[in-house]
Amino acid sequence: MKVISRAIAVMMVALLSTSILSGCRRGSEDILPKDEGENNSIIKEKVIPKSENETASMIKEKVIPKEENSILKELAVVYNNKSLKLSDFVDDKKLEDIFGKAEKIEFHTYSADDGLNMDPHIGRTNRKYKFQGLLIATINTLDKKEKFYVHQIEISDSKYTTPRKVKVGDTIDKLKEAYPEAISDPNSETSDFYIYSPVNHFDSMLFRIKDNKISSIKIYTLLE
Fold this sequence. Notes:
Blueprint: H1 2-31, H2 36-45, H3 50-62, E1 76-79, E2 82-85, E3 89-90, H4 92-99, E4 104-109, E5 125-131, E6 134-140, E7 148-155, H5 172-178, E8 183-184, E9 193-200, E10 203-210, E11 213-221
Antiparallel strand pairs: 1-2, 3-7, 4-5, 5-6, 6-7, 7-11, 8-9, 9-10, 10-11
């Protein structure tokens, strides 16, 4: 009888152990769902959401070098169906081919003691070409002193136009129609200036207004 009782006891212990292990297994399945591994995989793939990728792509697309940005073609002077825009590389011959022979050419090489406070540009040379009713200012690059690019254009004669065919003498209404993006200069108390900046505040076109008409046009880029 003792042998039978021991056998029954052993069987009961075995059955109890099996039930406990089975319950633990079911409990762990409830805590860790079958598809948790799949969920972890999805989370890893979504470390950078699609919308963030698109935003990053948009930012990269907006960082375009000046020479490749077609919008800057808006900041130009047109004469006899030929144009010259900001940041164009030029020399005496190229300017003469577009505007004819310059009436005067001036140049100045910046130095520490010239009183012009152009310390970041010490050693660079600024060349100005004066035509009738037109001034073209150029400056050489830091790495290649012989290469000059346009950094300022001043127009005071109606024979020169902008790419949108606006010229000195046009009314302010025509200016607003051609350049609806232009805004009144916030620094002018009398609203004598309208500014058009298609890319950023470094590259702009400034229209000076007198008696409700354009008296001059200045196209410029801030020197870096």
